[in-house]
Design brief:
By secondary structure, the chain is an all-alpha fold. It is built from 21 helices and 2 strands.
C-alpha cells in the first residue's frame, strides 16, 4: 500500500511532465512508423531518392556543380549530406525534416511563453505540442518526405526574435528560412506591417535576405555551377507552374480562373488586400501588440495562400501552424477555425498521396474561404476590443 501511495503521489506531482513525455514519445513513434513507408510519395520516388542517388554517383562536388534538382542550394546540401550515408535516402531526409518539426514546436512554445509570461506555462507548452499531432505536420515530413518543417522552423525563430525586438537575429533567421524555401514570403507581410506599427528596425534590414540568398548559392558556384544557373532557381520556380491552383482549396478553385488571363490580376489583388489591411492597422497601431502580431502572421499568411496564384497544397503549412498556435492558446473555443483549414489541407494531402476525396473540390475551397474570413473577422474584432480597453485605461 505504501508503494501504491508513492506511485499516486509521484503521478500527481509530475502529472504534466508525464503527460508531455507520453505525448512526445507518441509523436516520435508515429513518425518512426510512417518514415519507412515511401511507396505513396511520388515526390520521394521520382525526385528525392533519385537526386540522392545522383549525388552518390557524381560525388558532392560534381553533384553541386550540376542542375538536376529544382531546389535552392541549402536543400541540395541536405541531399548531398544524405548521399554520404550507406542507407536509403528516406532515413536522413526524414530525420532532418522531423527535427525541423520539433524545432517548430520549441520556438512555438518560446513565442507563447514570451507573449503570455510565466502565468500560463502549461497552456503554452500544450498549445505548442498540439502542432506535432496536426495531420499536415504528421504527413509532411515523415510520410511525404518534404522540407516544409525546416523552413518553418527558421521562420518561427525569425518571428520570435521580431517579437523580442532583436531585429538582426530576426532577419538572419528569416533569410535562412527564405533560402530553404521561397514560401517564406508568406511571412513577409507581418514583418512589414510590424515596421509600420511600432517595430523600430531599419528597412535596410531587408537587404539581409538578398545577401543571404547570394551567399547560400556560393557552395554550388565554387563547385563549378554557373552563377546564373544558381541564382535563377527561385525565378524559375516562380514561373514553373502556370495554374491558378495546384491541388489546393484556395479561392480560385471556386472560379476555375485561367492563369494567363487572371494570374497577374490575382497578384495585384493580393497586394491591394495587404495594402488595405496595412492602412487599417497603421490607423489602429496602438492596438497592435504581440498577440495581434501572432494572429496577423497566420491571417496574412493564409490570406496570401488563398489569393495568390500557383499555390500548392503544402504552401499553407506555416500559416496553419501560426493560426493553430494562436487559437489553441488565446481562443480555444474557436479552434474550429484552424480545424477547418486543417481539414481542407489534409484532404488535399490525401488526394495527392492516396487519390480521391469524398466531396467536390469546390466544397473544400469554400470551407477554407469561410475559415479565413472568420479568422480575419476575429483579427479586426480583437483590434477594436483592445482599442476600447486602451481608452478605458487612459480615462
Amino acid at each position: 500500500m505504501k508503494a501504491d501511495d508513492r506511485i499516486r503521489e509521484f503521478v500527481t506531482k509530475y502529472s504534466h511532465e508525464l503527460v508531455l513525455a507520453a505525448l512526445f514519445a507518441l509523436s516520435v513513434l508515429i513518425r518512426i512508423d510512417l518514415a519507412p513507408k515511401t511507396d505513396w510519395s511520388g515526390d520521394y520516388q521520382y525526385c528525392i531518392a533519385p537526386w540522392v542517388e545522383e549525388y552518390r554517383r557524381l560525388g558532392v562536388v560534381q553533384g553541386l556543380a550540376s542542375s538536376f534538382t529544382n531546389y535552392y542550394i541549402p536543400y541540395n546540401l541536405i541531399f548531398a549530406f544524405a548521399s554520404l550515408f550507406p542507407m536509403d535516402a528516406w532515413v536522413i531526409i526524414s530525420i532532418l525534416s522531423c527535427a525541423g518539426e520539433y524545432a517548430c514546436v520549441y520556438y512555438a512554445y518560446r513565442i507563447l511563453r514570451y507573449l503570455g509570461g510565466e502565468d500560463h506555462a502549461h497552456r503554452s507548452i500544450y498549445a505548442a505540442v498540439l502542432l506535432l499531432f496536426l495531420p499536415p505536420m504528421i504527413l509532411n515530413s515523415a510520410f511525404w518526405k518534404q522540407c516544409d518543417a525546416i523552413y518553418s522552423a527558421f521562420a518561427l525563430m525569425a518571428f520570435y526574435y521580431l517579437l523580442k525586438d532583436s531585429y538582426y537575429r530576426a532577419f538572419v533567421f528569416l533569410s535562412v528560412a527564405f533560402v530553404f524555401k521561397l514560401q517564406t514570403i508568406l511571412l513577409f507581410p507581418v514583418f512589414l506591417i510590424a515596421y509600420f506599427c511600432g517595430k523600430k528596425y531599419s528597412l535596410l534590414m531587408w537587404l539581409r535576405i538578398p545577401v543571404t540568398y547570394l551567399e547560400a548559392g556560393l557552395p554550388a558556384i565554387l563547385c563549378g555551377r554557373p552563377a546564373r544557373s544558381v541564382y535563377m532557381i527561385y525565378f524559375d520556380q516562380s514561373s514553373e507552374y502556370h495554374y491558378m491552383f495546384l491541388n489546393t482549396g484556395n479561392l480560385y478553385r471556386l472560379f476555375r480562373s485561367d492563369y494567363e488571363a487572371a494570374g497577374h490580376l490575382a497578384v495585384y489583388g493580393t497586394v491591394a488586400f495587404l495594402a488595405l489591411l496595412t492602412g487599417y492597422l497603421i490607423r489602429h497601431r496602438e492596438a497592435v501588440n504581440g498577440e495581434c502580431l501572432l494572429q496577423l502572421a497566420g491571417v496574412t499568411g493564409y490570406g496570401c495562400f488563398m489569393t495568390l496564384p500557383a499555390m500548392h497544397e503544402r504552401y499553407d503549412y506555416l500559416p496553419i501552424l501560426l493560426v493553430t498556435l494562436y487559437y489553441a492558446y488565446y481562443h480555444r473555443s474557436k479552434c474550429y477555425i484552424p480545424a477547418m483549414m486543417i481539414l481542407v489541407t489534409t484532404v488535399m494531402y490525401c488526394q495527392y498521396l492516396f487519390g480521391g476525396n469524398t466531396l467536390p473540390e469546390e466544397a473544400y475551397a469554400l470551407i477554407a474561404l469561410v475559415a479565413w474570413f472568420l479568422a480575419l473577422r476575429d483579427l479586426i474584432d480583437g483590434i477594436q476590443k483592445r482599442e476600447v480597453c486602451n481608452v478605458h485605461k487612459d480615462q
